[in-house]
Amino acid sequence: MDVLILVAHVIVSLMLIGLILIQHGKGADAGAAAFGGGGGASSSVFGSQGSASFLSRSSAILATVFFVTSLTLAYFSGKTERVESVTQTVISSETVVTTPTPDDLPELP
Questions:
Q1: Rg of the chain over CA atoms, in angstroms?
Q2: At a CB cut-off of 8 Å and minimum separation 6, what does 42 contact?
Q3: Closest C-alpha to 55, from 70, 95, 63, 100
Q4: Chunked mean pLDDT (size 10), the chain, 109 residues
Q5: What does the DSSP 8-state code read for residue 15?
Q6: N- or C-end of the chain: fewer Cβ atoms within 10 A?
Q7: What is the Cα–Cα distance from 53 to 94, expressed in whole angstroms?
Q8: pLDDT of residue 6
Q9: Is the dihedral of CA 77, 83, 89, 92 positive or negative?
Q10: Is residue 33 part of a domain?
Q11: In terms of residue numbers, what domain contains 5?
Q12: 97 domain-assigned
């Protein structure tokens, strides 16, 4: 379950980064109009205000999903079993040391 949420979290974060990078700032239209760069060209796909509302609504939805997955991962990280000491993780096994008897030793030449 944790792995699925982590994968979704990474995918949503990458999508959110990409969506934010393709948005233009509020001052971009003013700069394009001031230098005569054709201010109407930026609104060719979504209409005059369509891209702003679509992109901002999409980024708000992705940000909400990002926060939900973040909180879910934080909740699940608190549910794991905590180890108090390193010695608790060591499996205790008794080692039996036997000393060889004179019959077990090889004969010397």
A1: 32
A2: 24, 28, 29, 32, 51
A3: 63
A4: 93 95 75 57 55 84 96 86 70 71 74
A5: H
A6: C
A7: 69
A8: 94
A9: negative
A10: no
A11: 1-16+53-80
A12: no
